[in-house]
């Protein structure tokens, strides 16, 4: 699909008309430029009359699109407008996002994407990504082959069982891989045709959905056990058979019983990571590193208490242990500083349920405790981290306790979407006399406290996964070890300026996020060469330049390059095909060597 479809292929002095004609240039979101087609292009491509006679520049179109989105009052309608735009004019969609990232990130991503997933049956219009069902078991490769793009480098996939903090949304979870991959392009410049969202439909245990006439997925309980595992296994194999051994496979929003064990199972076998475990760990450790500059306490001098002991909590805790070991602590001493509290209470080795296997590193030989506030009183954490999916769980009295025990209490309310956050930014400031160091998974409006305004930052893995993905894809790395995420965390933390800290922000502003992603990608790529994970040779001399040369071009392509003279060109001089179409054609992308696999 990506070959020569928008051009007349020029071979020697023969012009071969391609298959895309006239109106297809308008119907294909990747080719469409709307009223930005020039008169010459309209004539040459057979578009005259199919467009209104006026012309608009891309900049004018961006303005019009922005005005159109902003006219909608409801965020879900804004989301729908943007989806529609992505489906009709991809470059316009991404350039609109690029110029308005702070405004539209909360629409294409958390919190609005959560609402979109909940209403997915109602808003589902057009295929975006692949739905692969358990009934396709045995034929998964054939289904993947139906995807029309050949040059896929990254797949984000979910089985929909833990969508944000909203629980099991089954096939409605497709909104998440779609949203995450939009960020691959918007935040790291990865080309959209290289990204494939996939929903693995194995049923749902959500009774409301099973009875929902609008539901679009398999209408039965989740298939679990051996059959489910075999299906996921077949899926992993089919992806690399179809797209190559170094295809990046990002697990997203799998439920706790599966997330960690799949990571363990596949981390050494495929080029894969789990965003909720590793991406989240990286962004939070970066935030903790930035916080040390405010609290004047090293990571290894803090006491951490987690509300929630699932994928995110354990990912963060394990990476924090690595970071504390970097500061000189032993592994045991580092673990001893981390306490967790799950749905059954404090992770105490003495409690009747015991400590769940996925969190066994953090069980403590202490009296069991099921009251979280009492736990805060006993443990006296310097840092409270919420990944419990329980909105408002950090009550005013818990926050006050944090303020009582600490000069600068660190409070992270990471659960998504907004209504699942453990507390709001305003509540954190109000109940700690404005002394807290705060971040949240979904954005909060600025906080006013004691006559001062604070702009708290978003501790969200979106600061990490696009950059890591770019670094991994560009070097065709064959695996993604945990230390890659520590590298990413350190890079992100370095972007935080004193001016950010002063206004309560532990992360750089979103308008810098592309620059951040590029730096993360560059550091990840350097690390990939250092650790022999990279398979693109020779190693580029200037990594940032190399990465930049492969980024998605937001500017509309010129469909009639200079040398092109239509229709008669007896002895035309053409540049090499690659040269002529560089930046436009997808077939000239980064050379993709075969990967190494253990
Ligand atoms: N800010 C970010 O970048 C990220 C945020 N998250 C958010 O974190 C939340 C958790 O995600 P995961 O860890 O993947 O989920 P998970 O399902 O693996 O873990 C949830 C944990 O919360 C505990 N929990 C549930 N109800 C509780 C209660 N009433 N009291 C105490 N603990 C309770 C569970 O026992 C479990 O340990 C979600 O809302 C998700 O959206 C997840 C990944 C990234
Ligand atoms: C941000 C994210 O990955 C989550 O909430 O699941
Ligand atoms: Mg997630």
Automatic annotation (TrEMBL):
Residues 86-267 form the Malic enzyme N-terminal domain. Pfam families: malic, Malic_M. InterPro entries: Aminoacid_DH-like_N_sf, Malic_enzyme_CS, Malic_N_dom, Malic_N_dom_sf, Malic_NAD-bd, Malic_OxRdtase, NAD(P)-bd_dom_sf. Residues 277-529 form the Malic enzyme NAD-binding domain. Coiled coil: none annotated. Keywords: Metal-binding, Oxidoreductase. Its cofactor is Mn(2+). Belongs to the malic enzymes family. This is Malic enzyme.
């Amino acid at each position: 699909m990506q070959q020569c479809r928008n051009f007349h292929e020029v071979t020697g002095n023969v012009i071969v008309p391609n298959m895309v004609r006239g109106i297809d240039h308008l119907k294909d979101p990747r080719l469409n430029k709307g009223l930005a087609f020039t008169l010459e292009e309209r004539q040459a491509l057979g578009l005259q009359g199919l467009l209104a006679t006026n012309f608009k520049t891309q900049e004018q179109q961006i303005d019009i699109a922005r005005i159109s989105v902003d006219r909608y009052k409801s965020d879900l309608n804004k989301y729908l407008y943007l989806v529609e735009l992505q489906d009709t004019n991809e470059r316009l969609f991404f350039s609109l996002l690029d110029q308005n990232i702070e405004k539209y990130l909360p629409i294409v991503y958390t919190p609005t994407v959560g609402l979109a997933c909940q209403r997915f049956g109602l808003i589902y219009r057009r295929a975006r990504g692949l739905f692969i069902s358990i009934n396709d078991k045995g034929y998964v490769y054939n289904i993947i082959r139906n995807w029309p793009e050949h040059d896929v480098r990254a797949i984000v996939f979910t089985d929909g069982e833990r969508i944000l903090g909203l629980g099991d949304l089954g096939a409605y979870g497709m909104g998440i891989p779609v949203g995450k991959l939009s960020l691959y392009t918007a935040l790291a410049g990865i080309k959209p045709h290289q990204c494939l969202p996939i929903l693995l439909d194995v049923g749902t245990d959500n009774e409301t959905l099973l009875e929902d006439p609008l539901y679009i997925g398999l209408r039965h309980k989740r298939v679990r056990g051996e059959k489910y595992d075999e299906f996921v296994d077949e899926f992993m194999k089919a992806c690399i058979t179809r797209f190559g051994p170094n295809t990046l496979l990002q697990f997203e929003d799998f439920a706790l019983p599966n997330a960690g064990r799949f990571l363990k199972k596949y981390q050494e076998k495929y080029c894969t990571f789990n965003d909720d475990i590793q991406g989240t760990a990286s962004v939070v450790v970066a935030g903790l590193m930035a916080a040390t500059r405010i609290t004047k306490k090293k990571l290894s001098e803090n006491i951490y208490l987690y509300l929630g002991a699932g994928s995110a909590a354990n990912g963060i805790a394990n990476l924090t242990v690595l970071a504390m070991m970097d500061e000189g602590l032993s592994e045991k001493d580092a673990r001893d500083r981390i306490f967790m509290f799950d749905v059954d209470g404090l992770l105490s080795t003495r409690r009747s349920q015991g400590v769940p296997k996925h969190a066994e590193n953090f069980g403590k030989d202490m009296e069991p405790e099921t009251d979280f506030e009492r736990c805060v009183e006993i443990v006296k954490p310097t840092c409270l981290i919420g990944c419990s999916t329980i909105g408002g769980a950090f009550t005013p009295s818990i926050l006050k306790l944090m303020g009582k025990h600490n000069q600068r209490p660190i409070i992270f309310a990471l659960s998504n979407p907004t209504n699942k956050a453990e507390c709001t930014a305003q509540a954190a400031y109000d109940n700690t006399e404005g002394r807290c160091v705060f971040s949240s998974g979904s954005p909060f409006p600025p906080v006013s406290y004691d006559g001062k305004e604070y702009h708290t930052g978003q501790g969200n893995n979106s600061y990490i996964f696009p950059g890591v993905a770019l670094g991994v894809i560009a070097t065709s790395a064959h695996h993604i070890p945990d230390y890659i995420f520590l590298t990413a965390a350190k890079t992100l933390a370095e972007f935080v300026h004193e001016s950010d800290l002063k206004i309560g922000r532990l992360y750089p502003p979103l308008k810098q996020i592309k620059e951040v992603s590029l730096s993360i990608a560059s550091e990840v790529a350097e690390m990939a060469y250092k650790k022999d994970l990279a398979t693109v040779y020779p190693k580029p001399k200037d990594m940032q330049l190399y990465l930049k040369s492969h980024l998605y071009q937001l500017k509309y392509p010129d469909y009639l390059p200079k040398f092109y003279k239509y229709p008669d060109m007896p002895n035309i001089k053409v540049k090499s095909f690659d040269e002529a179409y560089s930046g436009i054609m997808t077939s000239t992308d980064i050379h993709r060597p075969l990967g190494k696999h253990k």
